[in-house]
Design brief:
single chain, about 190 residues, mainly alpha, 7 helices, about 70% helix, globular, methyltransferase, transmembrane helix, Isoprenylcysteine carboxyl methyltransferase, membrane
Length: about 190
């Protein structure tokens, strides 16, 4: 084995640290309490594990268009290096905006004192944390579309849409008409839709 094939071994401690920090962040920021929330958080963590493993040289798939042969979408669609740079930048922006939405939503919920939150990020969408997760997933798919990531993405989307609908039923029971009025005015995940 040459040194290039063993690079992932030297990176492994950093991968483990990243996975521990991301697991802590997922559980802190999403604060799962119900089994469906735990399933969603677990699926999101599996997505992160698959992404980190592939990104750091532990190949989980044998895809003909991998990063060793050029950028995946650029190679598949044939739009070259400049397209790959744009794709990486756009994917990174989506990930950062998604992470910001998750944190902003979490801060609002953490300090909510049991009241209905309709300001800040919640004035633009009813589920900013879940919208943030969707942006992170889409951003990751833009610049690292491996088979595990591609398979987990729709699972994560389905679980969090389902969780959001369940939470909304609970919020209607808890807040009644004010929440129904909020539902009519503010979109679920995408502002302005």
């Amino acid at each position: 084995m040459d040194a290039e094939n063993n690079d992932w071994i030297t990176l492994w401690p950093y991968v483990v640290l990243l996975l521990i920090l991301s697991a802590g962040a997922v559980h802190l920021l999403l604060a799962p309490s119900h089994w469906l929330e735990w399933v969603g958080a677990g699926s999101l963590q599996a997505f992160i594990v698959a992404f980190c493993a592939e990104m750091n040289g532990i190949v989980l798939t044998n895809v003909p268009f991998n990063h060793g042969r050029g950028h995946p979408w650029a190679a598949l669609l044939g739009y070259g290096t400049s397209g790959a740079v744009f794709e990486m930048m756009l994917g990174s922006v989506l990930v950062v905006v998604g992470l910001l939405l998750i944190v902003k939503g979490w801060i609002k919920l953490y300090f909510h004192s049991g009241r209905l939150i309709t300001d800040g990020a919640y004035a633009m969408m009813r589920h900013p944390q879940y919208a943030g997760i969707f942006l992170v997933v889409f951003g990751t798919l833009m610049h690292w579309p491996t088979i595990p990531v591609l398979l987990l993405a729709p699972v994560i989307l389905w679980l969090y849409v389902r969780l959001a609908k369940r939470e909304e039923a609970d919020l209607i029971d808890r807040f009644g008409t004010p929440y129904k009025q909020y539902q009519e005015l503010v979109p679920m995940f995408v502002p302005g839709w």
